[in-house]
Amino acid sequence: MSIRLRLAACAALAVCACAGSAAFADDHVYSEGEIVNVSRIRTVDGRFDDYMKWLDTVWKAEQEAAKKAGYITGYQVITLDPRGPDDPDILLVVTYRNWAALDGGLAKGDAIAKQIEGSVEAANKAQADRSKIRRVLGTQNMQVLNLK
């Protein structure tokens, strides 16, 4: 076999191998969707309305500013029945376009805090004060998988 024929055969084999892996990558029955951040909140007994008032004012303003800046695509407040004392009664859901949208989150959050609450220090103090009306049980990021 000539060198030219061997090179052509190797090139053809390489093309087939690459095409096969590309076809395999397209073989998923889903595509990667948005990133959803869910914070699990438990309000202190008798303080649910106080926390909802804060959500409707400061938190909503922060989310609207983040949405306007293109940092997030949406947000929701969901209430649920807790099954025990360590279960949430509110879920705060924030949606991001993709994982890259989370890059630089600290700087983005600081800019919004300054815009809405005047300074990062004021936002930090307000966060500490909210511990009197709610407890954060945890936060989790997850990705939506869109079925094709």
Question: What labels would you give this structure?
Answer:
alpha+beta, four-stranded antiparallel β-sheet, Alpha-Beta Plaits, 4 strands, about 30% strand, about 150 residues
Which helices and strands, and how do they pair?
Elements: H1 3-25, E1 30-43, H2 48-68, E2 74-79, E3 90-96, H3 105-117, H4 120-130, E4 134-147
Antiparallel strand pairs: 1-3, 1-4, 2-3
Helix pairs in contact: 2-3
Report on the architecture of this protein.
By secondary structure, the protein is of the alpha+beta class. The chain has one domain: Alpha-Beta Plaits, CATH 3.30.70.100. It is 46% helix and 28% strand. The chain has helices at 3-25, 48-68, 105-117, 120-130; strands spanning 30-43, 74-79, 90-96, 134-147. It has a 4-stranded antiparallel sheet with strand order 2-3-1-4, covered by helices on one side. The chain is flat and about 50 Å long. The two termini are 47 Å apart. The model has no long low-confidence stretch (mean pLDDT 87).
Give a short summary of the structure.
The protein is built from four helices and four strands. It has helices at residues 3-25, 48-68, 105-117, 120-130; strands at 30-43, 74-79, 90-96, 134-147. A four-stranded antiparallel sheet has the order 2-3-1-4, with helices on one face.
CATH class equals: Alpha Beta
Walk across the major sheet and give the strand order.
2-3-1-4
* Approximate helicity band: 40-55%
CATH architecture: 2-Layer Sandwich
List segments where confidence is low: pLDDT < 50 over at least 5 consecutive residues: none
- What CATH calls the topology is Alpha-Beta Plaits
DSSP summary, beta strand count: 4
End-to-end C-alpha gap: 47 Å
Number of structural units classed as domains: 1
**Main sheet: strands, sense, barrel:** 4 strands, antiparallel
Rg over CA atoms: 24 Å
Fraction of residues in β-strands: 25-35%
Number of helices: 4
